[in-house]
Amino acid sequence: MDSSTCKRYHEDEFDSRESLENYFSDKPDMVFGEDSLVFPIENLTKTFTEGHVKGNILIDLSIGSLVHHLFAACDFFKHIIVLKMRDRCIMELKRWVDERTGAFDWNHATKLHVDRVGKSDQLLDRVGKVRSALQHVVKCNLEKENMMEPIVLPLADCVMSGWLLDYICKNQDDYMRYLRKFSSLLKPGGHIILLSCLEMTFFLVGKEKYHAFSFDADFARNALVAEGFIIDRCEVKKRTVVSDLCDYKAMLFIAAHKEK
Known about the structure:
With 260 residues, this protein is of the alpha/beta class. 32% of the residues lie in helices and 25% in strands.
């Protein structure tokens, strides 16, 4: 596919609300639930409950206005700092955090999480805990040497990124460059968690077609190893979804730690 015909997530207008409705909602015609909701929640719950990934600070760099990937994390970190490249994504996320009218409803994803950990009676407690954790939602610029300039972020115990590398990278060099930036946010021995779509070239939001960087699981693993990471968990879920909204072949979950 000619990528020049596609828009870019971080350069062009992006409707974060429509993205949530298309790929992360509980609408009857939303067919991606097993891949975009269940697969991440199951793997994140397993990873965090094992007890190796924890600490003071988690930095999240993910697409759009996602919340569900943080449900498991908030039990294991004192502070969660969410960095966003787009003002509209920040506004949409804060609408949910502040319980404002018209906020996206994440109750279906919250229920998936509490059911996985066997605490279905703690639905409201989980929502409140996640909202409390998301008080630091700020804009970043990945093209700057210090992406939070003039603020200098404290080094994190964990960096988590959901699908952002898929959306913003043009090629392998871009992937390695941004991965190096993510790595620079970590303490020695810190952890990184990546959620990705494999072999995806485009995705649709409304009538707009956006570029995606296509790569396979071997490339992602090798990129992490090249940056000094040791792979702790790598899971691939082949696509079973029928939809013309995007063309990914599988979902990828990787957890790794940085050599000290």
